[in-house]
Write a structure and sequence with these properties.
The protein is α/β, with parallel strands linked by helices. It contains 15 helices and 14 strands.
């Protein structure tokens, strides 16, 4: 079954085309549409076994972008399918499912309505996902669509961990609570990491670390999300590229009063001007921070140490919450590629049973590998996340 996987952003569309079978999957193509709505848009199409194709032209909306993707997929030279009739289903990544969607589901009008109702608390992501769904309705009418939510995996978190100690009325009126994100990635790497380490997922205590420009840490107890670092929004938890992570709320109200900042300006400051960018004044990209760190830049050293330290804190707190630990998994752009980060975070965790193998860790980039010693009580693994495969798998299982 040929499945198109879409991840729609406000001005972009990431996509993969995967041929799914009961026991196997085959990537046919992947690509990216960028700069939607600007004067000049870009399409980069990468078919497996063929030359990359690029297109530069105005792309006014998501429907146009998806139409261009369909043309690329069926093109005689760089296409991977003979006709659009071969696409049997479309799977969408949707950032926020609130409390509505504990599992992935087939799209109908009620599902669209519920996704739209969550746009207020996910204004950057959910509207784009809806645009992608509606574009497929036009370009591939009648083809079944499936929504896979970043928040679904975290719907097993108990109330003691997802509630905030605010007046309960705000939960009743507005559903203000922890939702968590990166759920599709955490679910995938927990399963894959457990299999790699020879651990029974149904009887396990795992901490998964999805570390990138945005990042989160999740406690996975017996295969289910038990706690996670992101909260009501992706702002909470770790120090990130431009997000501040956990912070005393009174510090924010104090700054707002002193600077005469509106709620919107404070939100922008915390989400887009903080994190390692705000601390270092250099960049939100950890590669730039690493270079400045090794050059001796004091603020870059502070920023990177804070970024790494927060990851270690969450691993320790989640081990305490679960009453032990069997496996630590690193994934995401930084998690998969930074041997320095993995070593820094794991050093000092020997008291928990971690015996890190620096030689096995060195140079590991984007592969699945155990990086702890053979006799380590707590295993440590690097897993290359594959959210698109998880989305395609859920889509295949629902549609077939």
């Amino acid at each position: 079954m040929v499945i198109l996987v879409l991840n729609c952003g406000s001005s972009s569309i990431k996509y993969q085309v995967i041929d799914m079978q009961d026991a196997s999957s085959k990537l046919l193509a992947k690509g990216l549409v960028e700069r939607i709505g600007l004067t000049e848009g870009d399409l980069t199409h990468k078919p497996v076994g063929k030359e990359k194709f690029e297109l530069h032209r105005p792309i006014p909306d998501h429907t146009t972008g998806i139409t261009l993707v369909m043309e690329a997929l069926t093109h005689p030279e760089h296409g991977v399918i003979a006709s659009l009739d071969e696409v049997k289903a479309v799977g969408h990544r949707v950032a926020h499912g609130g409390e509505f969607f504990p599992v992935s589901c087939l799209v109908d009008e009620e599902v669209k309505r519920k996704i739209a109702s969550l746009c207020q608390i996910a204004p950057l992501h959910n509207p784009a996902s809806l645009q992608g769904i509606e574009a497929i309705d036009q370009v591939l009418p009648g083809v079944p669509q499936v929504t896979v939510f970043d928040t679904s995996f975290h719907q097993t978190i108990p109330a003691t961990n997802y509630m905030f100690a605010l007046p309960y009325a705000y939960y009743e009126k507005y559903r203000v609570r922890k939702y968590g994100f990166h759920g599709t990635s955490h679910k995938y790497v927990a399963r894959t990491g457990a299999a790699l380490a020879g651990i029974d997922l149904a009887d396990s205590k795992i901490v998964t670390c999805h570390i990138g420009n945005g990042g989160s840490v999740t406690a996975v107890l017996n295969g289910k999300s038990f706690d996670t670092s992101m909260g009501f929004s992706p702002l909470d938890g770790l120090v990130m590229g431009t997000r501040c992570g956990s912070v005393d709320a009174s510090a924010i109200t104090f700054i707002g009063a002193k600077e005469g900042m509106s709620f919107a300006e404070l939100d922008t400051m915390m989400n887009k001007k903080s994190g390692v960018q705000g601390i270092s004044g250099i960049s939100s990209d950890m590669r730039d921070i690493d270079a400045a760190y090794h050059a001796g830049n004091e603020r870059a050293i502070l920023a990177r140490d804070m970024y790494y330290s927060r990851i270690k804190k969450f691993i320790g707190s989640y081990a305490a919450e679960m009453g032990g630990l069997d496996l630590i998994v690193f994934t995401g752009g930084v998690g998969e590629n930074s041997s320095e980060m993995r070593q820094w975070v794991c050093e000092g965790l020997e008291f928990m049973g971690v015996r890190f193998d620096a030689a096995q860790n060195e140079g590991v980039r984007g592969v699945d590998k155990i990086i702890s010693t053979a006799d380590s009580k707590v295993k440590v693994a690097v897993i290359a996340t594959d959210e698109e495969l998880m989305i395609a798998t859920d889509t295949y299982n629902l549609v077939k």
